Amino acid sequence: MKKLPLGIQSFRKIIEGSYVYIDKTQYIYDLINGASYYFLSRPRRFGKSLFLDAIGEVFSGDKELFKGLWIYNSGHDFEKHPVLHLDMSNISNETPEILKESLAVNLKKRIKEENLDITCEIPSDMFKTLLEALHNKYNQRVVVLIDEYDKPILDHVDDIEVAEANRKVLRGFFGILKSMDPYLRFTFITGVTKFTKASIFSELNNLLDITLTEEYANICGVAIEELDKYFSEHIKSLSTLNKFKQYDSLHDEILAWYDGYSWNGEARVINPFSLFSFFIQKKFSSFWYASGSPKFLMDLMKKKPASYTNLINLTIGEWALDTFDLKKIEVEPLLFQTGYLTVKEVLHSSGSPAYLLGIPNFEVREAFNLHIVAEFTETGGTFTESAYHQISESLRTGDLQKMLDILRTLFASIPYQLHIDRESYYHSIFYAIMSVLGFDMDVETPTAKGRIDAVLNLDDKVYIMEFKYEECPKEASSGEKQKLFEKALEDGMAQIKDRGYAKKYAEGGKAIYQASFAFLGKDEIEMRIEKFPQQIPGAVSGESKYEAALWEQFEEFGFPVCTQCRYKQFSRSKKTLEHADAYIETDKLTIPISILTDLSVVDVDDHLRRLERIRKNMDSRGETNKLVGAIAGLRVPEFVRKYAHKKGLYVIIESDDSATLAELPEGFEAREW
């Protein structure tokens, strides 16, 4: 099993040291036999520097170094050319003066190595003269490789004055390349961002940008077929450890964590830095993100918090995706160029294509959302573990009040200047919080009649969520706020029901909860949740358990049963369908019963609201019977039973073949509607 070249950017060291090398030499062959000037943008730690070094070695003339690789038998002549390789990440750039001086120092080092007589001091003049001298010395045209060209600018994005001054220095420095065409064999420039050609490469109008070119989509990174070809032994080795799964499952989990980067919407590649780190450290973690999350990016998003609300199903045009302008920095293309978003689909039309962007994988999503929450709130991320357990318990039991309290705390900790009075803002921050806590949410989920804001799928439950924002005047009274909340909650719940969002999940055998969230701003959040009525298979089938024995128990409480049935529909309108799973009736009393498998606090609250609506419907028809409620479950936690009794409901405990009234607490008084 070969060693992994984590952090190694020398092609020769990898080959001679018997490290794993993913053969990208066919791309090199195609490039050097195509155009003469290329530009490639890829995120950091994606293999750009190694690719450039391999190009340099191809032009070094040492064919045997490539034995066993594609290019070795390609017919390439391996003619030797002088190579000038400038790594801008090794160039000091604190000020434009230091940048010029550092460029000069690096060029002088090469001049000294070549024993050349060059006396000019201006970096651009020195660059031009050095290229001429190398051409004349070796009687061969020169290969120019420039790595991380944009680092002197990106290092100062938070100080536009320095960044702009450094940009001007680079523009003058690179500007000499066009006049050097007779002396140059091949030029390849890499970077993270893509500044407009007018801002950096104004003179180099024959520079071919291959960043989004389909045939070069896999030029950097590890393609899925390369994972199996080069790393099968590493996967097999880890799959034998107890903490990891079998080969196929581990293979899929690796893809979920680190795959997903694409520049054409089809071919996907894995981040090599994260992959190598995973194999070496034998654990899943956010290695790439932890290796250097750019502070300027988070600072920029805090200055433009609306940008975060645009990241779900973001569609952007080719021109906007393709450029970076210091004078008008846009968050979305910068997120793509730096690797936090990737191409999910290319949308072709009669004009230039548009690109559907999304977060590439679990590693980026988890780490990025954690930083968003930590940066946007004052929690610093310390809430995460405690909040996760509390919200998990809330979702498991169906009691979402605790989750609502945590959400209020988090939204309250966001500074006022970062709040945006927009529904999508609250939707996005909610999504970030839930993602940070480890919940896999689907957002903007399509249905036949619209898109669901968010869906959370658990083992035995599905939560369908709709978010509504209502603008609230600062001077609004508590009563006015309550009316706004009621309107927003009603609108959200009506949208879920009217569009039949729950029907998409009705056949899955899971309990379905419909949740409407209303935001008035900051920590002004309310929620309404109802359980979707569905046929519960198994335990709650048949009518026998609701016959004689149970009715006798109710009669002991003074309710002589006259009528009973398995299902009764109390009303029907365009928007509501009020029903009970079963009910009993005396000459003066009606008891609707809600029957569930796993009983939760949410189910109790849902039935209480149902009873309110049934009462209104009975009154509208002139029915004078008193209304008392009961709720039944196969599994009823003690705290849920106590809660139902406290609310004045009878509780029925089910088993496979019977149903029994739960023992009433001392002082119990049935609530009447």
What's the structural blueprint in terms of helices and strands?
Blueprint: H1 11-16, H2 25-32, E1 37-41, H3 48-58, E2 83-87, H4 96-113, H5 123-138, E3 142-147, H6 151-154, H7 160-174, E4 184-191, E5 208-209, E6 222-223, H8 224-239, H9 247-258, E7 269-270, H10 272-281, H11 287-290, H12 295-303, E8 314-317, H13 318-321, H14 331-337, E9 342-347, E10 354-358, H15 362-376, H16 384-397, H17 401-412, H18 423-436, E11 441-447, E12 450-457, E13 461-469, H19 478-498, E14 511-521, E15 524-531, H20 548-556, E16 563-565, E17 568-572, E18 577-580, E19 582-585, E20 589-598, H21 601-620, E21 626-627, E22 630-635, H22 638-646, E23 650-654, E24 659-661
Parallel strand pairs: 1-4, 1-5, 2-3, 3-4, 13-14, 20-21, 20-22, 22-23
Antiparallel strand pairs: 6-7, 8-10, 9-10, 11-12, 12-13, 14-15, 16-19, 17-18, 19-20, 23-24
Could you name the ranges where pLDDT drops below 50 across 5 or more consecutive residues? Answer: 535-547, 561-577
How many whole angstroms does the radius of gyration measure?
A: 33 Å
What characterizes the major β-sheet? 7 strands, mixed
Number of strands: 24
Distance N to C terminus: 74 Å
Architecture overview:
The protein is of the alpha/beta class. The chain has 3 domains: 11-216, Rossmann fold; 223-376, no CATH class; 544-661, Trna Endonuclease, Chain: A, domain 1 (3-Layer(aba) Sandwich). The protein has 22 helices and 24 strands. Strands 16, 19, 20, 21, 22, 23 and 24 form a 7-stranded mixed β-sheet that branches. Helix 4 (96-113) runs parallel beside helix 5 (123-138), helix 15 (362-376) packs across helix 18 (423-436) and helix 16 packs antiparallel against helix 17 (401-412). The protein is elongated and about 110 Å long. Mean pLDDT is 83; it is low at 535-547 and 561-577.
